[in-house]
Amino acid sequence: MGNHQLTSLIRMANQIAANNTHIGDDIAEAEMVADHMTKFWARSMKVQIREYLEQDGSELLPIAKQAVALLKH
Questions:
Q1: Which Pfam families does the record match to this protein (predicted)?
Q2: Helices 26-40 and 62-70 sit at what angle, rounded to 10 degrees?
Q3: If you average pLDDT over residues 56-67, what whole number do you get?
Q4: Cα torsion at 50, 8, 44, 59 (round to 10°)?
């Protein structure tokens, strides 16, 4: 995946996270985001975003970071 694709994944992860902040529980919100990614993202997308989190992750919102970390389990 190129840089443009990674930028798109970061944007999508942040959008999903922003759309799931209504619960008021960071853990539950992160689990919802991770669940969405698990269900709808291709394996290659999940691998790319996990690698990004491990290397930098600075552009991910806090809930998105937690969600991506949950994908490792």
A1: FdsD
A2: 60
A3: 96
A4: -10
Quote helix, strand, coil % in the chain, to nearest 5.
75, 0, 25
Residues of the domain holding 56: 3-70
How many domains does the chain fold into? 1
Q: How confident is the model at residue 64 (pLDDT cuts 50, 70, 90)?
A: very high
The residue behind tokens 């529980």 is 25
Distance CA 44, CA 29 (A): 23
Long-range CB contacts for residues 36-40, cutoff 8 Å, separation at least 24: 37/13, 37/67, 37/68, 37/71, 38/71
Nearest to 16 by CA among 51, 44, 45: 45
Q: Which helix (H) or strand (E) holds 1?
A: none
